[in-house]
């Protein structure tokens, strides 16, 4: 009996990496689409003859879809499970990417981008749900950070590698290729991912940890209302909106053109700077999760990282806007990305201040914040650029436009002081 139990435990601890690994690869696709528009901005403007404001709206289409789908994503994760949720979502993302690549006009491109946003929107919440079932409680923030790191590799692919790929096969074929890769990942997800260890007749994590968990079918509407009414849900929402909205506005839409137009960089060199920022976020996501778990604190690390992020944006917007040596930009971009990871602790906080049976719903509500920021800011910056470029030089135009990003980060920083400290434990009761 003991030997059989040890065998099952060993299988659980090994197979969970297959489950997580496939979902993490799907998350790479999520980040690719999140940041890809900024790199192909020039090609899209030429192909469809559109303005900066339209580019901003095209980029935002992904985030609006993602934001609207967050609560449904949590409901799906808590009801039909991660396996079918991610399978269907990744398949939709593949279809949307192919449609975007084939788009004969800007209207169809918007539709393709919308379908992509709907498809990829379900992946991260499903991963968090899977981590709750397959990983120890003490590993949650660390695994969330590692997941963010892997996902950010998709953001890195959407920078210099995408520039090279587009240069070789064109922007249309590049998105069609990513679409077919997404379809393959959807098939792998259906074949190998399982919602819980019990689906494979393996012991649950709660059983191994000696926790008594009352598994019950939740009342979705009641749980959603309870999460929304919880005043401690919202500070993390705002932190995520402020910091992430500014970050994706830079790396996903306006950063490459800012560096080429203000600093005179080549497209590849500009993309490399965005890659450094994305890499900074990826590394920071692992670091902050580990340090938070080790300290058994959520609030203090979030405040320190948010303050660092605010300082970086102040340097970028008010001091470093085309006025000093370019060599400073690489470390600045890295630290800016690294400190943006403050928002990743909001996911753990959401789980720890709400009913554990509604983990998918609580994290999805907080997750909406980041994509609200990502949806609102790019068009605002695009409209500002269209407006100020008529009366100011290009450097001053970007400075005025990026001031909106600085304000966004400042709001997120202020909200970090209102976050409820959980000491890395569920305090819902």
Characteristic terms for this protein:
429 residues, mainly alpha, Growth Hormone, Chain: A, single chain, 18 helices
Shape: globular
Could you tell me the strand content as a percent range? under 5%
How many distinct helices? 18
Strand count: 0
Largest sheet: none
Number of domains: 1
Q: Class, according to the CATH hierarchy? A: Mainly Alpha
CATH topology: Growth Hormone, Chain: A
Q: What's the end-to-end separation, in Å?
A: 36 Å
> What is the N-to-C succession of helices and strands?
HHHHHHHHHHHHHHHHHH
| Overall pLDDT metric | 87
Question: What's the multimeric state?
Answer: single chain
Query: Helix/strand/pairing class, anyone?
Result: mainly alpha
CATH superfamily: MFS general substrate transporter like domains
CATH architecture classification: Up-down Bundle
- Rounded to the nearest angstrom, the radius of gyration is 21 Å
- Helical percentage: over 70%
Report the uncertain regions. none
